[in-house]
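Action item from last meeting closed. Structure (218 res):
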């Protein structure tokens, strides 16, 4: 059976990472979390402990080494030989990741790494511009979304479980702003391509969404 290249796009908080990882595991595919790669650049930028400017981000990305590998349980994110998997989901990283991802040289470097990882097939990749830009020839294209209320509630629950002090209304505002920034950026904006299947996960359980993705890949 041919090993497919699967592209999943969608806005912030749609649950792409969670369902993509589970679907990839069931398919026996490698899961590539592109959002984590941009978060890795954001994390390293914050480590400089300077004002976050475009110039600082571009300086950081020049010699960054980002690697993803699957350890049988989850995708591990490594930057310059340091495992930062647990450190890239903080509110501080989330706050600057759109700024990081909007910069052309950052995207060029990450896209090059992503295409190399997908070249062999048997890959499920998620992000904002996978079907439109990174892997336009993907075998299966899915646009995964949910209402802003639903996405904010999911993010709120996730953050609370990790011990972060967050407010639901603030998360809603952040997601709305992130949607606007991702959709309106000049380089590779968030769009649903014509041949992508729309999958609205509002009211669906994680298992139901994963089952739908598997069905589309079969």
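Sequence:
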């Amino acid at each position: 059976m041919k090993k497919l290249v699967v592209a999943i796009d969608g806005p912030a908080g749609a649950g792409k990472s969670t369902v993509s990882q589970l679907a990839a595991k069931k398919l026996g595919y490698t899961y590539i979390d592109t959002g984590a790669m941009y978060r890795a650049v954001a994390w390293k930028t914050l480590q400089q402990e300077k004002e976050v400017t475009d110039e600082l981000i571009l300086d950081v990305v020049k010699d960054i080494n980002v690697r993803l590998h699957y350890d049988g349980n989850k995708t591990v994110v490594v930057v310059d030989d340091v495992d930062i998997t647990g450190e890239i989901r903080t509110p501080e990283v989330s706050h600057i990741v759109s700024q990081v991802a909007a910069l052309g040289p950052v995207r060029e470097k990450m896209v090059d790494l992503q295409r190399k990882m997908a070249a062999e097939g048997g890959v499920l990749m998620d992000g904002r511009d996978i079907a439109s830009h990174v892997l336009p020839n993907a075998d299966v294209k899915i646009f995964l979304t949910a209402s802003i209320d639903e996405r904010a509630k999911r993010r709120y629950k996730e953050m609370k479980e990790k011990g972060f002090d967050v407010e639901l209304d603030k998360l809603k505002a952040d997601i709305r702003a992130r949607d606007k920034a991702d959709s309106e950026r000049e380089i590779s904006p968030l769009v649903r391509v014509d041949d992508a299947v729309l999958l609205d996960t509002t009211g669906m359980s994680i298992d139901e969404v994963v089952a739908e993705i598997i069905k589309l890949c079969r």
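Note appended to the action item: The chain has a mean pLDDT of 92.
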